[in-house]
Amino acid sequence: MIVESALQAESAVRRDIVPAGDYYMKVVKKGQTVRLLDLEGNQAADTLFYNANDPVERYSAIDTIREQGNVYLTAGTKILSDQGNEMLEIVADTCGRHDTLGGACATESNTVRYALDKKCMHACRDSWLLAVTENEKFGMSKRDITHNINFFMNVPITQEGGLTFEDGISGSGKYVELTAKMDVIVLVSNCPQLNNPCNAYNPTPIEVLVWDAAA
Ligand SMILES: [Zn+2]
Question: What is the pTM of this model?
Fold first, then answer.
């Protein structure tokens, strides 16, 4: 569902450019709104959410899908935790839908899906592991890396119930925006994938903007 935002970039309290292959790991406070902006289009932003006050509580694809009765995420989606609590709500979306079934790229999946010599290529799972290692203050480790959301990524379900990675439906300047319902750690891997069309074989930067509640 296409819903545009009324927020102006100039009033954001924080703006970060995240190059492809890099990560973003910061706290978004309850009431703040965070926007992921696909700067050049056709990018994939592999995202995990955690309760900032107790990271053991984290995003649950299963609970989110079951409660909304739809496998795609878009405006109106309540992002639920594994404890059934609302973590964020998608309040604007100019892309239309986002995947949460396809998982993130890893060196292992690159090897299985593409070729043995893809093993050493940079993958989202590496970016997350680097993020939790470089941000010790959150007290997280490899065991905290779980199922994720692929913002902007197009993973349609076939008639037969299969999953396919398709050319992206996002474009330059498209965005998704979420309002936090609790203090959340936002962990994004801006996907470096070169082997499938999810980012048009050309990984590009995204921007992450944050607004205070008053905005
Ligand atoms: Zn990836």
Answer: 0.95
